[in-house]
Design a protein that fits this description.
- The longest helix is centred in the middle third of the chain and has 29 residues.
- The protein has two domains: 162 residues, Up-down Bundle (Alpha-lytic protease prodomain-like), CATH 1.20.1510; 92 residues, Alpha-Beta Plaits.
- The chain has a three-stranded mixed beta sheet, with helices on one face.
- The protein is built from eight helices and three strands.
- Helix 7 links the parallel strand 2 and strand 3.
- The chain is mainly alpha-helical.
């Protein structure tokens, strides 16, 4: 059942990433990255349903006793090797490209790995002494169901955070501020917001400049800030900048203090 869910969830992630890679258009100026986030939510939902089903099946058959052949262990041992490799690869790539759905699918593989280990223990007890531990297989199913349900709730929670435009960690916001303040003419950052749209973030920035500058000069500074952030922070898709007069314009020491505070 879990392996069938793996095939379905991986297919959903594949198509989610494929749709998310489409470039922005007039109707979707922020791109199609939400498809990738929705794919992650779907994977979490599949995990939740699979876990509940496995738990219920184990619970309703807990009174039964199993007599299993030795070769029952072979596919479980093979699954441990395969799932370990798949989870490691998906976690590595998912973190590199900031893919919520790929990381969700990696967590799916981790639940499989954990549940397979539980199944190995349960089947092992059944094989050692079928009369004494004949229902260990069913108890193992109950434990596996609980594990899958618990991890699926965590996956769904993380994905919903992305859909609700939860701000990134403070270090990412500090990187944006530091990069912006390195551009000549930038006197301060009043506000800095970022929201994740699929694989990358869209940033809203309130940039403070010298109020005596012309509109053209202020616009040029904002353009340089936007280019600098996109070039130095590859996880930023685009930056929307609002230019404001800086209250620090008359005190260069305060500007330097702010720069040093951000490193």
């Amino acid at each position: 059942m879990e392996s069938t869910g793996d095939v379905l969830s991986s297919a959903i992630v594949f198509f989610g990433l494929w749709l998310a890679s489409k470039p922005p258009d007039n109707e979707h100026p922020y791109g199609h990255g939400r498809y990738e986030t929705l794919a992650g939510l779907a994977v979490g939902g599949i995990l939740l349903l699979a876990g509940a089903s496995i738990f219920w099946h184990g619970l309703t058959s807990a009174h039964q006793y199993s007599f299993l052949p030795v070769y029952t262990l072979y596919p479980l041992l093979g699954a441990v090797v395969l799932k370990s490799a798949m989870a490691t690869l998906k976690f590595r790539i998912g973190r590199n490209i900031l893919s919520a759905s790929l990381e969700a699918d990696a967590w799916h593989d981790m639940t499989d790995l954990l549940s397979t280990c539980v199944a190995l223990i349960a089947v092992g007890f059944t094989l050692v002494d079928p009369k004494r531990f004949g229902n260990a297989d069913q108890i193992g199913g109950i434990v596996i169901g609980l594990i899958v349900v618990t991890l699926s709730i965590q996956v769904v929670h993380r994905t919903i955070d992305n859909l609700l435009d939860t701000m990134p960690e403070s270090e990412k916001l500090a990187d944006i501020r530091r990069t912006a303040l390195r551009v000549p003419g930038t006197l301060g950052i009043e506000k800095c917001y970022a929201r994740r749209t699929g694989l990358r973030y869209h940033v809203d920035l309130h940039l403070e400049v010298d109020p005596s500058l012309t509109v053209r000069e202020s616009h040029e500074i904002a353009t340089h800030v936007r280019i600098s952030i996109k070039e130095n922070l590859p996880w930023v898709a685009d930056v929307l900048i609002h230019v404001e007069p800086s209250p620090l314009a008359l005190d260069p020491a305060l500007v330097e203090t702010q720069r040093q505070a951000l490193g």
